[in-house]
Amino acid sequence: MQRIAAVGLVLVVLLTGCGSSKKPSAQSQAVQKEADYYEIDQLEKTWHRASSRQNVDLMMTIWAPGATFSVGPDTYNGKAQIRAFFMHKAGPFKPKHQWVSETPAYKIRITANGDKGTLYFECHYADVKTGKVVNTVAADQNVQKINGKWLITSSAASPVTLTR
């Protein structure tokens, strides 16, 4: 939490400058892009924390109100339908499953351009009791900064195969 506060303070100082109305410097633009990447990456971290803890309320904090989520042939529109998917259909959220979710860092891709961006990651779900990977899924998402917070506006999930 202290790191987030420190990053925020540095951003405020760097981005406010002397109150000039000139175009932001290349340095302040680079700092803003890094901050955006960091915040977008927090969506992935929250996703895995929520699915590992079977916390649907936490999962829903990363979705925009009118978001869409496509899983195979099914598309869920809006937070209510997306919530119902996680509560009733998503494997990691089934009470009988004790899974931990993670993404290897090299399987994360982030872009940001102004208030829009993309986020791709893979979910590798491991059974807590056996330690074996039981499911793998890719999430390819569009994200947007809405009211100062990065949120998922659309997501498409698909199975992936782990290779050695």
Main beta-sheet annotation: 7 strands, mixed
Cα-atom Rg, whole angstroms? 18 Å
The portion of residues forming beta strands comes to 35-45%
**Share in helix:** 25-40%
CATH class: Alpha Beta
Taking the alpha carbons of the first and last residues, their distance comes to 36 Å
Quickly give the structural class.
alpha+beta
Helix segment count? 4
Low-confidence stretches: 5-15
Q: Into how many domains do the coordinates divide?
A: 1
Please provide the ordered H/E string of secondary-structure elements: HHHEEHEEEEE
- Tertiary shape: globular
Global mean pLDDT: 89
What's the architecture, going by CATH? Roll
CATH topology: Nuclear Transport Factor 2, Chain: A
* DSSP summary, beta strand count: 7
